[in-house]
UniProtKB/TrEMBL annotation:
UniProt cross-references to InterPro entries, sorted A to Z: DEAD/DEAH_box_helicase_dom (IPR011545), DEAD_box_RNA_helicase (IPR050079), Helicase_ATP-bd (IPR014001), Helicase_C-like (IPR001650), P-loop_NTPase (IPR027417), RNA-helicase_DEAD-box_CS (IPR000629), RNA_helicase_DEAD_Q_motif (IPR014014)
Keywords recorded for this protein, A-Z: ATP-binding, Helicase, Hydrolase, Nucleotide-binding, RNA-binding
Lineage, highest ranks first: Eukaryota, Fungi, Fungi incertae sedis, Mucoromycota, Mortierellomycotina
Organism: Actinomortierella ambigua
GO molecular function: ATP binding; hydrolase activity; RNA binding; RNA helicase activity
Name assigned to this protein: RNA helicase
Extent of Acidic residues compositional bias: 40-116
Length: 592
């Protein structure tokens, strides 16, 4: 996507937003191609205009075709002459063109091979026990990913580890495997605590622990909001090996039951998954309350898809850092020596603990090479129509799809609209109860519905192998959110596609995303005539969905809570002047 053209487009749109002109999205647009965006006032005449344009284009195509036929005849005559003169040998120009094509293909292959990591080790060579290796083989996992190969040995050696890698690169197994191995050597509860920012991710991590830990009769418990605290307290009292929790609910249990009752004094591992999100201000108080009751002698593991300065600061200025080695010699000995040196780095503070091992996978782009990333440029009032067109198209009608919406109300309205259109779907957002969220995920995982509509609560960590398409109905304002959204497909080496629906007001956001991922999106081809054929049907469906949403009282509980907070704020504000007057009166009396 060319920045110069986008800048011009943005200026044109800001000057006259209601005129949907031809807005090219990149330099590679074919010369002569036209893309008209209809306005609301032009909807009735749109088909007539298109027919006229098609007639004009047909006339032009006939002229061009005639010229091309003449050129072909001349080229055939020239080829016959060259064939007679050179004995039928191909021309020098053809040889040059073939060589250039071969070079371009080789360069593309080199780029793909650089982005893909091929491990030369197996899991046994990383130090994992045979029972874990067999469990991985049963899951058809035979070679470690880059993050696994570089972090597992250091975790087994007892070091704190900070790991950064793309979404879908196997970060969960990178900390789960060494934890399970150490647990099998000295089983007790509570052995490890895993903290996650979302409830859905907590349940998913628990599933992976269960699958990998079958050989040792693993006991785990998920502690998240939205479920009965008493039931959770009983489960915690049974000393599970692994606690997977969201920070807020775990802190609630610590405050109500106490750390001693929860048996947290001997915790061996603390894991922060999606550490960039957990270390934000949102979870600061909850994390502080948890850290106070955990033993100092523990291993702390941080994993994330987006390495931030806040995460690296935790390792200290002299922390050992390892990145993808590119030694000049072919055997990689230079890189191995570097890794050995960093693993021996010791803290000089007197505790004798080694510095945290930091590994960040190097890559030219922050999304995997097997992911196709495209955009569809559309008028804002036709977003639902384009969405219905894409979901009904032959390419995606039967594919497992996640649609990301910006807000809960928008996600619920979309669910009701698609239901009116006969498209089976389910939703996932924070306005749903925890049981409703679990039921929705179960339907989507089981293939009962092929479409899941989610807010960003579903953008982190969800690993559903069947997902082949991610649709960004709303363009995320933070490029980090985009990376996590599209990371729900093309996981673990599989293929996938991400399509972002871009309106005239989203151009700058897309530019920021492309700059962050260091990759240009391609335009996904659509037929505007076919899209507009669905306009009346989609408009009627959306109207019915809006009425159903209003009648359901969606968001009523949230509105009541907001009104209560506003009332409390007003009460506090009204009481302040009285207090100030009393203080001033007391101050005057004391002076007298």
């Amino acid at each position: 996507m060319a920045k110069a053209k986008l800048a011009k487009t943005r200026k044109a749109v800001s000057a006259e937003e209601d005129d949907y002109q031809t807005l090219p999205m990149k330099n590679t647009a074919k010369k002569g191609s036209k893309r008209t965006q209809p306005t609301e006032s032009d909807e009735e005449d749109f088909e007539d205009m298109e027919e006229e344009d098609e007639d004009d284009e047909d006339d032009e195509d006939d002229d061009v075709a005639q010229l091309e036929d003449d050129d072909e005849l001349e080229e055939e005559e020239d080829d016959d002459v060259e064939h007679d003169e050179e004995g039928g040998q191909p021309s020098e120009q053809d040889d040059v063109e073939e060589e250039e094509d071969e070079k371009e293909e080789e360069e593309e292959e080199d780029i793909e091979s650089e982005d893909e990591f091929q491990s030369k080790k197996n899991f046994a060579e990383l130090g994992l026990s045979s029972w874990l290796v067999n469990a991985l083989k049963a899951m058809s996992i035979r070679k470690p990913s880059e993050i696994q190969e570089n972090c597992i040995p250091h975790i087994l050696s007892g070091r704190d580890v900070i790991g950064g890698a793309k979404t879908g690169s196997g970060k969960t197994a990178a900390f789960a495997l060494p934890i399970l191995q150490r647990l099998s050597e000295d089983p007790y509860g509570v052995f490890a605590i895993v903290l996650t920012p979302t409830r859905e991710l907590a349940f998913q991590i628990a599933e992976q622990f269960k699958v990998l830990g079958k050989g040792i009769n693993l006991k785990d418990v998920v502690i998240v909001g939205g479920l009965d605290m008493m039931t959770q307290a009983i489960a915690l009292s049974k000393r599970p090996h692994i606690i997977i929790a969201t920070p807020g609910r775990l802190r609630d249990h610590i405050m109500s039951s106490g750390a001693e009752m929860m048996n947290l004094s001997k915790v061996k591992f603390l894991v922060l998954d999606e550490a960039d999100r957990l270390l934000s201000d949102t979870f600061a108080d909850d994390l502080a309350g948890i850290f106070k009751v955990l033993p100092e002698k523990r291993q702390t593991l941080l994993f994330t898809a987006t390495m931030t300065d806040a995460i690296l600061e935790l390792a200290g200025p002299d922390a050992a850092a390892a990145t993808e080695d590119n030694p000049e010699d072919g055997d990689g000995s230079e890189g191995k020596e570097k890794k050995k040196e960093t693993s021996r780095t010791v803290d000089k503070s007197g505790t004798g603990r080694p510095k945290p091992f930091v590994y960040q996978c190097k890559a030219n782009v922050q999304t995997v090479s097997t992911l196709k990333q495209s955009y569809v440029f559309i008028p804002s009032y036709l977003r639902e129509t384009y969405l219905a067109f894409l979901l009904r198209s032959e390419a995606f009608a039967k594919k497992s799809t996640i649609i990301f919406a910006g807000r809960c109300k928008g996600a619920e309205l979309m669910r009701l609209t698609l239901r009116e259109l006969g498209i089976a779907c389910t939703a996932l957002h924070s306005e749903m109860s925890q049981q409703q969220r679990l039921d929705s995920l179960a339907k989507f995982r089981g293939g009962i519905t092929n479409v899941l509509i989610a807010t960003d609560v579903g953008s982190r960590g969800l690993d559903i192998p069947s997902v082949m398409l991610v649709l960004n109905f709303d363009v995320p304002r933070d490029p980090t959110d985009y990376i996590h959204r599209v990371g729900r497909t093309a996981r673990a080496g599989r293929g996938g596609q991400a399509i972002t629906m871009v309106t005239e007001r989203d151009i700058e956001l897309v530019q920021d995303i492309e700059a962050r991922i260091n990759k240009t999106m391609d335009e996904y081809p659509t037929s505007e005539n076919k899209v507009l054929e669905l306009l009346n049907e989609v408009t009627s469906a959306k109207r019915a969905a809006s009425m159903a949403l209003h009648d359901s009282g969606f968001g009523e509980k949230k509105r009541i809570q907001k009104q209560k907070r506003m009332a409390m704020t007003m009460d506090d504000a009204s009481s302040r002047p009285k207090n100030i007057k009393k203080l001033k009166t007391k101050a005057k009396k004391s002076k007298a």
